[in-house]
Design goal:
Blueprint: H1 3-25, H2 28-40, H3 42-104, E1 109-119, E2 126-129, E3 142-144, E4 149-156, E5 161-165, E6 172-177, E7 184-189, E8 193-198, E9 209-212, E10 224-234, E11 239-246, E12 255-259
Antiparallel strand pairs: 1-2, 1-12, 2-5, 3-4, 3-12, 4-5, 6-7, 6-9, 7-8, 8-11, 9-10, 10-11
Length: 262
């Protein structure tokens, strides 16, 4: 048998076999389709739901990134508002101190000046202020706080001023007892006190509050200076020497109030 005849025979055999199988399996085809349909029907729905969930997840992730950026921006705004609130609170406190000085000590408030340094060379006790001539400060202006007197401006630069405090040995201030008549002179007694001299007729005792008086004419009358700690008679009883503790703790000062000179 030739090769061509063999191929034709095999082709016819395969054709007959295919027709036979088709005839035998046709009754089973609908039943097989119905059997698989319930199993495969959920697959498209699951695929659709999976796609929806993926889109929702990506959308939520994108929105989360947006929210994260918005959260950072809101935090920056809150921090800026808190800083502004602190600044305004400090300004209110500064103005409140100035108003208290104006009410209780003297009406001529020139400025509220920061204390930026302290000169402790030798026996001198002086403060450096962060304001100067361009801010209206001049030599001879009294310096105070709501608690009490600090000293007197003795030097002024364009941006700074030097204050001779009450503790400086070159300092002098006229003083008087708060609740009794009489005048005296107080001088700085380093490192942390004052020494005042009064006539023997002036009633002064430990615990008394001393205020600025008028003998030297450098400070407004009535500014608190310090409290008497000790009193003794000197020069055969012709004078009273009084040791005074200042009301203001100079080493803790951050701001002072500058007054117009008399």
């Amino acid at each position: 048998m030739s090769e061509v005849a063999l191929r034709r025979s095999l082709f016819l055999l395969l054709l007959l076999l295919g027709l036979g199988l088709a005839t035998l399996t046709r009754p089973l085809a609908p039943r097989f389709s119905l059997t698989l349909s319930p199993l495969t029907a959920p697959l498209p729905a699951l695929g659709h739901r999976l796609g929806q969930n993926l889109r929702a997840g990506f959308a939520a992730l994108w929105n989360r990134q947006d929210l994260y950026g918005e959260n950072l921006e809101l935090k920056k705004r809150v921090a800026a508002l808190e800083a502004e609130n602190r600044r305004l609170s400090l300004e209110v406190e500064r103005l409140s101190r100035a108003l208290e000085v104006r009410r209780s000590q003297a009406p001529g408030v020139v400025a509220v000046a920061p204390v930026v340094g302290e000169d402790l060379s030798g026996l001198y006790r002086r403060l450096v202020l962060g304001l100067g001539e361009r801010d209206g400060l001049r030599v001879g202006m009294p310096v105070t706080t709501p608690e009490g007197l600090v000293g007197l401006i003795v030097e002024v630069g364009e941006r700074t001023a030097l204050v001779r405090t009450l503790l400086d040995p070159e300092s002098q201030v006229g003083v008087r007892p708060e609740k009794a008549p009489g005048r005296g002179i107080a001088r700085g007694a380093p490192p942390d006190g004052l020494v005042a001299e009064f006539p023997p007729t002036v009633p002064v005792a430990p615990g008394d509050l001393l205020l600025t008086g008028s003998p030297l004419g450098l400070f407004p009358d009535g500014i608190p200076v310090g409290r008497v700690e000790r009193v003794e008679r000197v020069q055969g009883g012709l004078k009273q020497r009084v040791w005074v503790r200042p009301l203001v703790e100079l080493s803790l000062l951050e701001e002072v109030i500058v007054l117009r000179p008399l």
